[in-house]
């Protein structure tokens, strides 16, 4: 077993223990392995170890790493976990299965337009900055209802 596979099993065990302690089923928790700074070979190694859900911060990085891997592993699920510029909405809709960082109406409208155009609807999440920290992304809680 590779070192990465061993570490992955340890993380999965920690998740199972934490879920059990919280009275939850561990299958209700999804481990999103972040591919940031890791090349395609490391991601392939994680895929061989059984990891299927990955997150990327940037559309450009994901475009370099994941199209071939998604073709080889149809059950691979790719999350956009970083900020998204509206001019990259089409690329994001095309590549990602989940977009976690919707934080403004202009972006939501751009994504909706691209989804309609491409006939593809990734799962989308509103990013809420619950700590209201100006240096962090996300819409402030008092503005969330308006965006939703």
Provide an overview of this structure.
- By secondary structure, the protein is α/β, with parallel strands linked by helices.
- It is 47% helix and 13% strand.
- The chain contains six helices and five strands.
- The chain has helices spanning 3-21, 40-48, 59-72, 89-95, 105-118, 141-147, and strands at 33-34, 53-56, 77-80, 98-102, 123-126.
- It is globular.
- The N and C termini lie far apart (45 Å).
The N- to C-terminal Cα distance equals: 45 Å
Widest sheet, order of strands: 1-2-3-4-5
Fraction of helical residues: 40-55%
The amount of beta strand, in percent, is 5-15%
Keywords:
6 helices; alpha/beta; five-stranded parallel β-sheet; 47% helix
Please sum up the structure shown:
Helices cover 47% and strands 13% of the residues. The chain has six helices and five strands, in the order αβαβαβαβαβα.
Reconstruct the topology from this structure:
Elements: H1 3-21, E1 33-34, H2 40-48, E2 53-56, H3 59-72, E3 77-80, H4 89-95, E4 98-102, H5 105-118, E5 123-126, H6 141-147
Parallel strand pairs: 1-2, 2-3, 3-4, 4-5
